[in-house]
UniProtKB/TrEMBL annotation:
Source organism of the structure: Streptomyces kronopolitis
UniProt name for this protein: ABC transporter ATP-binding protein
Pfam families for the chain: ABC_tran
Ranges of Low complexity composition bias in the record: 304-315
Keyword line: ATP-binding, Nucleotide-binding, Transport
Domain ABC transporter, residue spans: 2-227
A GO term for molecular function: ATP binding
Family that this chain belongs to: Belongs to the ABC transporter superfamily.
Keyword tRNA processing recorded: no
Family annotation (PROSITE patterns): ABC_TRANSPORTER_1, ABC_TRANSPORTER_2
Keyword Ribosomal protein: no
Length: 342
């Protein structure tokens, strides 16, 4: 497992990671979520001893990273897919990693096969597409057959078949009893892959909970009812002490009453229903609800603002409303975004 205790990282005045304490357990996929700049990559880098914590500790299966002999056999990671030495072939890149970690060379062809890169094993990595580089990074993570795996945005650049493949791979690795910790901004994908979630905002822990509880606790679930006899249905619900809200599209939304009971009630009064459907918010909605206050960078909805007619290329865009005089403002489309001052 991975255990964090009071993990903190400052970059000058910036607190990137703020007193994080949590445990990532084996046997399930744990998702790591947070808005841009929340501190996910910094946390993962500290797990791998690529960055020194300002305070706090990380333990991998009870040990500090520096105490691990042949670390790739304990923890494998995909952080930046393009961080490979471009002049080396895929096989050579993996062979160098294997040799420096006491891993038998036969393992190289095994992992290349697992990630589907056997045919390009001798090709230089600098010619690889982003998707191929992701696969090579995943091969490196698997090389030492580690008990703990970290994946930072693993589906970046993968096509639908590749996304499906990595989802199953992560689930299989977890079902073998390994610890799998994965960050992604693709909420729909995370909802299909992770059973447990760690959510951070501005470096602080916001949730450490099961996927199911996270969605339930941070979103509203209700039953949607549509009927050609809406007024009669509304009267019936009110007579039963059930509150129903009329939505913009004319349907009724009922909180806190199971769909079965609503259906039976309508049937007992011979009211026709065209829809009776429980609505559960998505992970994306729950995530946005929880983290709304901790999002650092907001874009405005709507169309991009075109350059002002007659403005010279590179001319400053007008300062956005609320800007402080004299402060540098973002350029280009930057007039349409601003850093939230919370
Ligand atoms: N080397 C660094 N020097 C200074 N500040 C840094 C450094 N690395 C990260 N930061 C800052 O720390 C904060 C956390 O960054 P980090 O990359 O960990 O966030 P993240 O959650 O991974 O973001 P994203 O989802 O956008 O990848 C950000 O404000 C970032 O600007």
């Amino acid at each position: 497992m991975i255990e964090l205790e009071g993990l903190t990282k400052h970059y000058g005045d910036k607190v990137a990671v703020d007193d994080l304490t949590f445990t990532v357990r084996p046997g399930i996929v744990t998702g790591f979520l947070g808005p841009n700049g929340a501190g996910k990559s910094t946390t993962m880098r500290m797990m791998l001893d690529l960055d020194n914590p300002t305070a706090g500790t990380v333990r991998i299966d009870g040990k500090h990273y520096r105490q691990l002999r042949d670390p790739l056999t304990y923890i494998g990671a995909l952080l930046e897919a393009k961080s490979v030495h471009g002049g080396r072939s895929a096989a050579n890149h993996l062979l160098c990693l294997a040799q420096s970690n006491g891993i038998p060379r036969g393992r190289v062809s095994e992992v290349l096969d697992t990630v589907g890169l056997s045919a390009v094993a001798k090709k230089r990595a600098k010619g690889f597409s982003l998707g191929m580089s992701q696969r090579l990074g995943i091969a490196a993570a698997l090389l030492g057959d580690p008990r703990v795996l970290l994946f930072d945005e693993p589906v970046n650049g993968l096509d639908p078949e590749g996304i499906h493949w990595i989802r199953n791979l992560m689930k299989n690795l977890a079902s073998q009893g390994r610890t799998v910790f994965v960050s992604s901004h693709l909420m729909s994908e995370m909802a299909l892959t992770a059973e447990h979630l760690i959510v951070i905002g501005q470096g602080r822990l916001m949730a450490d909970t099961s996927m199911r509880d996270f969605i339930q606790q941070n979103s509203r679930s209700y039953v949607r009812m549509r009927s050609p006899e809406r007024e009669k249905l509304l009267d019936l619900l009110h007579s039963e002490g059930i509150d129903a809200a009329v939505a913009g599209n004319g349907s009724l939304e009922v909180d806190g009453v199971p769909a079965d009971r609503l259906g039976e009630l309508a049937a007992a009064h011979q009211l026709v229903l065209h829809e009776l459907s429980p609505q559960q918010a998505s992970l994306e909605e729950a995530f946005m609800q929880l983290t709304a206050e901790s999002v650092e960078y907001h874009a405005h909805d709507g169309e991009p603002v075109p350059a002002q007619a007659g403005a010279a290329p590179g001319a400053r865009t007008p300062e956005p409303a609320g800007a402080r005089p004299g402060e540098p403002q973002p350029s280009g489309w930057g007039a349409d975004w601003q850093k939230k001052r919370s």
